[in-house]
Design a protein that fits this description.
Helix content is 38%, strand content 21%. It contains 15 helices and 19 strands. A 9-stranded mixed sheet has the order 9-10-8-7-6-5-4-1-13, with helices on both faces. Strands 14-15-16 form a 3-stranded antiparallel sheet, covered by helices on one side. Helix 4 (119-131) links the parallel strand 4 (103-111) and strand 5. The chain is globular, with a radius of gyration of 21 Å. The structure holds S-adenosylmethionine and iron/sulfur cluster.
Length: 452
């Protein structure tokens, strides 16, 4: 196993989209094409499956030095109202364009820290969204909360607005690790927001943990997981630490590369975590995620309904996902578009009445076929060859998979490829064999975190 880890631990995408962002067309997408594909997707699916909304709320009170998210650090809460009014203006631009009233299947508030916003402002935001939309019959509403900045009032307000699922960033309970990542947060504080969520009636609570952080070791991970299991969250995200210090502005500092667990140690922390979650009754979902069998994510896996998009794994698929807020990515299935990455540029465009996208990608027919295969592998750990691939592409993919086949990580038959249990940790490498854009344009600088 040690040799396999050394062999396959290379920079690679996490496949929340295909093509992955660095391989979107350099020329981008025209505003006209973006609008056209959005309207097409909306007409095809609004009545039958509804649409999803991702709303990015970027503010955080203090910087965690491991964080790779798009965030804005400030203690000034006066930023809340102008920002949410801009998000609602952006939503108006979409609603004017779509003509019919959208039926929302899913809303997710991501960040940054959505619970940076006061209860009144969160209420104003969600009520503003529903002035122009209806709830699809299986409506779901979830959000990310920081345990140190989530009050009972916020939990209750969001529940009253229809949320039944939330997730809390935990990362690690060890004091040495917490100091290095500049995120001091006690078990008692996490227990408080977790128990309050249960008391209020939330049906699914998720905890985010990370392995591979500075100074983590077997003992610290055992303790972190012991504490996590005491609270029995319905879902656990166990992310591999993405060390991407070359991306300007992510704030990854305060520790040294030498403080990070090495490849094999990091992988051991993953295997250890996985075993401890299994022992506690959790089931592994795709990559990085675990859930109790009573949770909707496990049920989606069981019914082959699991989906993956920029929000990560979701239980319900919609073809159209509109991303609102600075840096958000939207997906019309036929195209992707990303919003301006600073609040200033984002606000300036929305104020001018223009959809605030700054780059995107129109998928080719070939992209759409590969996209489906990568999704199948990431969600169901298998895919059928007969979906759209001509023989020459299929043979090229098989050539690239040969080493992975020889290492016993996947099984290939004339109509199917299936990832074996031993191959699960190499799932990103397996998808890379399908990634024609990556193969045709090998990057010459580091743009991805390591696969393992
Ligand atoms: C937007 S943040 C979480 C919400 C909230 N701001 C908090 O920190 O509690 C979403 C999650 O992304 C994960 N994350 C952020 N940076 C990461 C990195 N460099 N590698 C792996 N996971 C990361 C963390 O687990 C984090 O909880
Ligand atoms: S981990 Fe959460 S709170 Fe910390 S900087 Fe990132 S988004 Fe903000």
């Amino acid at each position: 196993m040690k040799n396999l880890i050394q062999k396959y631990n290379i920079p690679g995408p996490r496949y929340t989209s295909y093509p992955t962002v660095p391989f979107w067309d350099k020329e981008g997408i025209s505003l006209e094409d973006w609008k056209k594909t959005t309207i097409q997707s909306f007409k095809e699916t609004n009545d039958t499956e509804g649409i999803s909304l991702y709303i990015h709320l970027p503010f955080c009170e203090s910087l965690c030095t491991f964080c790779a998210c798009h965030k804005r650090i400030t203690k000034r809460h006066s930023v809340e109202e102008p920002y949410l009014l801009t998000v609602l203006k952006e939503w108006d631009l979409y609603c004017d364009m779509l003509v019919d009233r959208p039926k929302i299947r899913e809303i997710h508030l991501g960040g940054g820290t959505p619970t940076f916003f006061s209860s009144e402002n969160l209420k104003q935001l969600i009520e503003g969204i529903f002035k122009r939309a209806d709830r699809f019959k299986e409506f779901e509403f979830s959000y990310e909360g920081h345990p140190n900045h989530t009050s009972e009032e916020q939990l209750q307000t969001l529940y009253d607005l229809g949320s039944r699922r939330n997730s809390f960033g935990i990362q690690d309970y060890d004091p040495v690790v917490q100091k290095a990542i500049h995120r001091i947060q006690s078990f008692e504080q996490v227990k408080k927001v977790h128990d309050l969520s249960k008391k209020i009636g939330y049906e699914s609570i998720s905890h985010d943990l990370i392995f591979g952080l500075p100074f983590q070791n077997e003992e610290s991970i055992r303790n972190t997981i012991k504490n996590t299991i005491k609270l029995k969250p319905d879902r656990i995200a166990y992310y591999s630490y993405a060390h991407v210090p070359w991306i300007k502005g992510v704030g990854q500092r305060g520790f040294d590369d030498n403080d990070l667990p090495k490849d094999n140690e990091k992988r051991y922390l993953y295997e250890l975590g996985k075993q401890l979650f299994f022992d506690a009754g959790y089931v592994e979902i795709g990559m990085d995620h675990f859930a109790l069998p009573s949770d909707s994510l496990y049920k989606a896996l069981d019914n082959k309904k699991l989906h993956r998009n920029f929000m990560g794994y979701t239980a319900g698929k919609t073809q159209l996902m509109i991303g609102l807020g600075m840096s958000s990515i939207s997906d019309s299935w036929y195209a992707f578009a990303q919003n301006e990455k600073t609040t200033e540029a984002y606000t300036e465009k929305v104020d001018r009445g223009v959809l605030p996208i700054f780059r995107g990608h129109l998928l080719s027919d070939k992209d759409l076929i590969i996209r489906k295969h990568i999704l199948n592998i990431m969600c169901n750990l298998e895919t059928e060859w007969n979906v759209g691939l001509d023989d020459s592409i299929k043979n090229n993919i098989l050539d690239r998979l040969q080493e992975i086949i020889d290492d016993g990580l996947i099984e290939v038959t004339s109509n199917k490829i299936t990832v074996k249990e031993e191959g699960r940790m190499f799932i990103r490498n397996i998808c890379m064999a399908f990634d024609l854009r990556l193969i045709e344009n090998k990057p010459d600088t580091r743009i991805f975190s390591m696969t393992i």
